Amino acid sequence: MQMMHDVYGTGIGFGIGGFLVDILIIIIVVGIVILLLNRTNYMAGGSERLARMEKDLEDVKKTVEEIKNKLDEI
Fold first, then answer.
1. Does the pLDDT of residue 54 top 60, yes or no?
2. How far, in Å, CA of 7 to CA of 17, rounded?
3. Is the pTM of this model over 0.85?
């Protein structure tokens, strides 16, 4: 008995249905990888963003203090 081969010759024997299942599996795996990468980048990026926001806040405080001092001089 000869085994049926799909378009790619993988020997699954499901024809177009097997091809669609393969595509679905690939999409799911790629989606999971992207989700995990976004999560790790989000966590790392969150602490970096927090540090930048703290630095910006300090800069704003200094600027406000400088403006206040100049207004007091006037």
1. yes
2. 11
3. no
